[in-house]
């Protein structure tokens, strides 16, 4: 087991290096660089740009060097914990990203929580009451959530929240709390704004979760051990929770790998529509304006989370489900 | 003669106002700003008569009341520069009638438009209370603009006359002289630009970042802490008055940035040392604080409709008008429609420098450009997309410009498909394919791909209408949306045949403003990108103009620089405009598409009918936002 963990950890290093290379290539693929974007933006607003000044900036930012040098420069920085420099913000990337992460985590964890709280009871109920009216009804609702484009739902709810409850449009708090220290008023304001994105983002995941739980549970419910447990007189609820539900939880744990990056990048489009101060819109913006170190560092961070998440979910699965053997391959 | 007379009159009036103003100012007893009274009482700030210059600029309009917080919306942290634009504190400034008057400067003496002597106001201070003197001008010229580390390309090109630097003399603490050996008529208007060449810097603050003045160890520590490579990069970062992203940089603007980026909300507070007062002795600006919240540009119209901005125009477009109007009453604001200053809201740019030789020949044929223009039904575009509110015609001056000519606007702009067909036949484009599309000389069907960069629906809609128009004369149009950077690169490299974009930036020019946009001097004029590049790089890259029209325009622009009297300049402007109209170098569509401006019901002093323009105008700048004020919230003012 210990050897396996060490092996998995070591494999992560070349994986991440390969990812960093791919990330860098992809960011560099569109023609031009940040400064050409910057020029285009200024010109679109009718401002003049001095080409000499742009050439000077290109040199100052190191954009005139060949791509492989830029890559190595960036990689070297990453290894030292320096995520590079954001051109658009004129600040080190670490300073730009800093305060958005906490809000992203708040939103994303609330969404995961929402999804679980909604999906669990519904999934269990529709599995145990298969083909009932309630099963159909709840499943239908879940599918509506899945089928409605998130951004559309966001816009509709935004409008309703504003006209009915007077909640300001977009954002995670009233403007006058932005940049102020935390206070009861600020927490209240965040809570008043949080429910909307949570519903919008959370609802899309709910349907999938319901269906998976329902399907897994249905598989298990038919099995011999359940019948045996029932026959021995165990109460239906206890039977359900103790055996089949535990088995049905497998996919949830396997999901951790994808869940962690979702916490950071998830729901970028909704965040853009709702102008949430999370990392999603910033990543999108960085990609569009070719702010390459900012975008690259974001993507690397996501990659790291995915790799770590898969690792964690593997470990957790092994602990929770004895049927899965980590070293299975080597035993054969 | 008449325009000259008017101009003289205007400057005499301005001078009189200034003299009267200063006379009045001496008699003025200043009134302390309520929001600063506490700091003054506590000794943190000197009283108001010690803060304003001994000879402040006096606002002659109706006095308002100080106080209040103005909410606006911006789309990213970079937009903090908008406040530097609309704050519009400039050495020289345009009035709403586009007369150029001294603003931060007390006065200017000029000789032959060659020698400019700038006089500062005694007692004028930076926002941190340090004196603003000629040392700040010297520091910029000697230690910034001419320092090879800070400005490797030397002083800004706009300050050079045919490559020659000005001579800068510091005459005394309040007097600076700039002189060239040839006339430099654009100098004062450069100082009044929305993104001006700030020829002064807060030397007392910046010296701590300059290797020549700072203690080496201290500077090294600063460089380390800021994660930059050397002191020059650090200096350039902290010193960016146009970008306005450093809360520590002292400024002369009405409001001072208080929030360090990155943030989702930027607060600007009043500059306690601002140089303008109203005629009753209250220091401007009236509004205490500006609160700029960041929101995605696409959501800004919705937020404005929900009443989250007191004053907003940026990111609002004409097609938001009905939506904004619908929630006017609920959120106590009014939507005003201001005029815009573009020569044409949208114009087609035939690329005279296109690579494809067949296209190049065709686009360079003036008959072809005229035919394309004649085949467009501008009236239909106006009615279908702009509710008939726009002005149809070519991409030229607007009626409010003293250089306006109705003939120029109408030239080749009437819808006349018959004549368009005749012109196309005359060129020899007579063969048609089975679809009825004309064939180019080399046998390809005449299909024009018009590239557009706007994500906005507007350009696509307009092109859709033109497509039907052109189809009738046997030309096929394809619209191709592109990322803006991709489109620019394609144009620069000569791939693009035609593109659609905003028309002339300044449709309100007068003869004193530079006609550079009318001649091939800029790469970003899409009808001749290579010629412009050639001019901009002094012949290092691009192509020299090889059509008489390009050479003529360039010659006229040079003559304009050399001309010293107003009539000559005006005549040159008119000649250049006439050439543009006759040669149809760009195909204008409609102009004066109104710009929605949302104004809170409590906000005063914002003109009902304004012009929304970047240069000149600085959006709200010419209307002096420092004199906008809030009616205090009283029960009577609440809408019932």
TrEMBL record, chain A:
Membrane-spanning residues: 6-29, 71-89, 101-124, 136-159, 252-274, 294-320
Intracellular or extracellular location(s): Cell membrane
Major localization listed first in the record, in broad terms: membrane
Keywords assigned: Cell membrane, Membrane, Transmembrane, Transmembrane helix, Transport
GO annotations of cellular component type: plasma membrane
Listed Pfam families: BPD_transp_1, BPD_transp_1_N
Membrane protein topology class: Multi-pass membrane protein
UniProt cross-references to PROSITE patterns, sorted A to Z: ABC_TM1
GO biological process: transmembrane transport
Domain spans labelled ABC transmembrane type-1: 101-311
Family: Belongs to the binding-protein-dependent transport system permease family.
Name recorded for this polypeptide: ABC transporter permease
